[in-house]
Amino acid sequence: MKRGGVLTNLALWLIALFALAPLAWMVSVSTMVPGEASRFPPPLLPAHPTFANFTALFADTDMARYLANSLVLATLATAISLTFNVTAGYAFAKLRFAGRDRIFRLLLTALVIPAQVAMIPLFLICKMLGVVDSFAGVLIPSIASVFGIFLVRQYALSIPDEMLEAARIDGAGEGRIFRSIVLPTLKPILATLATFSFLGSWSDFLWPLIILNDSGKQTLPVALANLSREHVQDVELMMAGSVVTLLPVLLLFLLLQRYYIAGLMAGSVKG
Amino acid sequence: MNREAAAWGFVAPALIALALFFFLPVIAALILSFTDFDIYAVADLGNLRFVGLDNYLQLLRTPLFWKALGNTAWFVVLGVPLSIAMSLVAALLLDSRLARFKGFLRTAYFAPVVTTLVAVAVIWRYLLHTRYGLVNWLLGGIGIGPIDWLGDPRWSMPAIVLFAVWKNFGYNMIILLAGLQTIPEELHEAARIDGASAWQRLRHVTLPGLAPVLLVVSILTMAGYFQLFAEPYVMTQGGPAESTVSILYFMYEQGFKWWNLGFASAVAFVLFAIMFALTMLQLRVSERWTR
């Protein structure tokens, strides 16, 4: 029994090492002197820790702009996704309108279609709308999502009908009910949806790669992919770039972990 | 009447957005796949012609498409079982009553999942470096000579699989962990009283109880792994010797490098058809299995 406990915990810490070592190595190398990491045996810790790579990154590349682009886009994507998906999810759960359940079932079948199928025509639509190479173009696919609507609907089902009826009898309009009764009850799922939207938008790669050509408008992942092709030898600089890209999402995850995992659980039972 | 109008006010914006920016493009993609939409048609739609099934027939005659299909299948066949096995091991260990610091460990395992794919792919490209990479250094410690992970066509896809397992195992682990908690403790207790060993309990109580969750997890993972793109884009650029060109990588190059948008749409639909067929097959097999 005792031996089993030691082995179990040893295995657990080995897996933790596997999960965290690449991230720890990134942080360590980002503070090394240029060229220091390209040695054998590979050094694990910097001999003389320095922030020079970060200074160089922001001075020599447009990293500050890409960081700002990503922050603005992820924030906007989150705000838009909350607006569209929350109202729709609530309506599918609690309001009555013709064809409601049939439309909802149709939406669910769309979950089996990979998003990439839509991307080529979506690019052409964006071209017609004149939003290629603009933030608007990047945001278009994240306006509404079937997953977001589903997430909010499942949660909103638990709002008691009597509560809404009572408000209606008191003469409250639907908009008022939504603002003062529904939204406060939905708070936890709003946090979940917001976390998902922000992280999804921050890490998205293929669509921004397709829709953005002007390097001034690039997001961090697209810029980092380009930089890493130009600076193959500059390990330390690239690791500084990875730190800048990962730090915001890792912090956000640590703060909102609970909400993120809740959404993940809901997502896995959708099938 | 008034309430119905209000309800439409709530759903209409999202439905219109989905119709315009998802359903319409999907249908358009199907139509595009029967046309010769290329760079000339981008300039002037007058150059567009319907070509029937030509794109699909040409696809069958394109060696790189078959190569991409094979590469992607290899990634799925190798990556899905390995990822799920890793998730299962982590979940079983974390679920053990002997485990300590569960909260911290769970967060640690999950951290790679929330990371930005491009950024961690850049890290792994250096970890897998033939001379200075940590992976080869560790392997050297147990007497295995340096492997040219990203430069040898035999090792490039296994290298990407290793990276994908690292990135994704925490995701399925969380789902499996929840599944483990739904297996009634009495079942374990009864098996224990009957003298079942830990291994027997795993085989006859835990795994059968987990089967439905494992099915969901394998379908989700397979669907995700068929969409392999950013990993080869960042780590290998499809090389060496086209050994990491995936279906989506092929689609991206055809569509947005060569502007063969009709042809690329056909690729997208073939990918969709394969994913759909395999999902149905998995569901069918599990139905028979549970009966």
- Order of SSEs of chain A: HHHHHHHHHHHHH
Overall pLDDT of chain B, averaged?
A: 93
Q: Which geometry of chain B do the CA atoms define? A: globular
Strand content of chain B: under 5%
The interface involving the most residues is between:
A-B, 98 and 91 residues
Described by strand count, sense and barrel closure, the largest sheet of chain A is: none
For the sheet with most strands of chain B, the description reads:
none
State the total count of DSSP E strands of chain A: 0
Quote the CATH topology of chain A.
MetI-like fold
Q: Structural class of the secondary structure composition of chain B?
A: mainly alpha
Shape, principal axes of CA atoms of chain A = globular
Q: Using only CA atoms, what is the Rg of chain A?
A: 23 Å
Query: What oligomeric arrangement do these chains adopt?
Result: heterodimer
CATH first level of chain A: Mainly Alpha
> Roughly how many Å apart are the termini of chain B?
48 Å
Query: From the helix content, strand content and strand pairing of chain A, which structural class follows?
Result: mainly alpha
Which H/E pattern describes the elements of chain B? HHHHHHHHHHHHH
Write up this protein.
- The complex is a heterodimer of chains A (271) and B (291).
- Chain A is mainly alpha-helical and 271 residues long.
- Chain A has a single domain (57-267), classed as Orthogonal Bundle (MetI-like fold), CATH 1.10.3720.
- Chain A is 73% helix and 0% strand.
- Chain A is built from 13 helices and no strands.
- Chain A has helices spanning 2-30, 52-60, 63-94, 100-109, 116-129, 135-139, 146-156, 161-169, 174-185, 187-203, 206-211, 220-230, 235-268.
- In chain A, helix 1 (2-30) crosses helix 13 (235-268), helix 3 packs across helix 7 and helix 10 runs antiparallel to helix 13.
- Chain B has 291 residues and is an all-alpha fold.
- Helices cover 75% and strands 0% of the residues of chain B.
- Chain B is built from 13 helices and no strands.
- Chain B is globular.
- The mean pLDDT of chain B is 93.
- At the A-B interface, helix 1, helix 3, helix 4, helix 5 and helix 9 of A face helix 1, helix 4, helix 5, helix 6 and helix 8 of B.
